[in-house]
Design brief:
19% of the residues lie in helices and 34% in strands. With 156 residues, it is α/β, with parallel strands linked by helices. The strands form 2 sheets. It has a 4-stranded mixed beta sheet, with helices on one face. Strands 5-8-7-6 form a 4-stranded mixed beta sheet, with helices on one face. The protein is elongated. It starts with 10 loop residues before the first strand and ends in an 11-residue tail after the last helix.
Length: 156
């Protein structure tokens, strides 16, 4: 069987009005890498896959009535993709901003030990990027939240 680079257990599909253009943008802004690009006989994108470390996304255009873009829902996102970075979250945010991402939340430390930022891409999709900056236990983040949380972990 051919190896198509999908080693992650979970990936996501995301749809754009101009998916070919967005492949380059996602590379430039967020650091995704093209794994596979399939064009149809008319030169339109039929399928694509991009990787980010162990994860992957499939980028495409509307191909059925049950898929669409945020622009078709008045800008509402029914999902957000979270990408966990190993390092350099502030530089990653600046890279995204320079490429034209709308930064919805500047990088900020969270009570659970991650530093996160949120960005909207030109197609209207909202992305969250995080980097662990302090390793905390669930009890520590419950206390730090000030919200009376009680976290239970089911898998380490």
């Amino acid at each position: 069987m051919a190896d198509h680079g999908r080693h992650a257990t979970l990936g996501s599909s995301i749809y754009y009005e101009d998916p070919l253009k967005m492949l380059d943008w996602l590379e430039e802004a967020f650091g995704f890498e093209k794994m596979m690009v399939i064009l149809d006989a008319d030169g339109k994108l039929a399928h694509s896959q991009m990787s980010f470390r162990e994860g992957y996304i499939m980028v495409g255009s509307k191909w059925a009535d049950f898929v669409g873009t945020p622009k078709e829902t008045g800008g509402i996102n029914t999902q957000m993709i979270h990408v966990q970075l190993q390092e350099g979250i502030d530089a990653h945010c600046e890279r995204a901003r320079a490429a034209g991402a709308e930064i919805l939340q500047e990088p900020d430390d969270q009570f659970y030990g991650d530093r996160t930022y949120r960005a909207r891409d030109p197609g209207g999709h909202v992305w969250t990027f995080g980097q662990t900056v302090r390793a905390l236990t669930p009890d520590q983040w419950d206390e730090a939240s000030g919200m009376g949380l009680k976290t239970e972990l089911y898998k380490p």
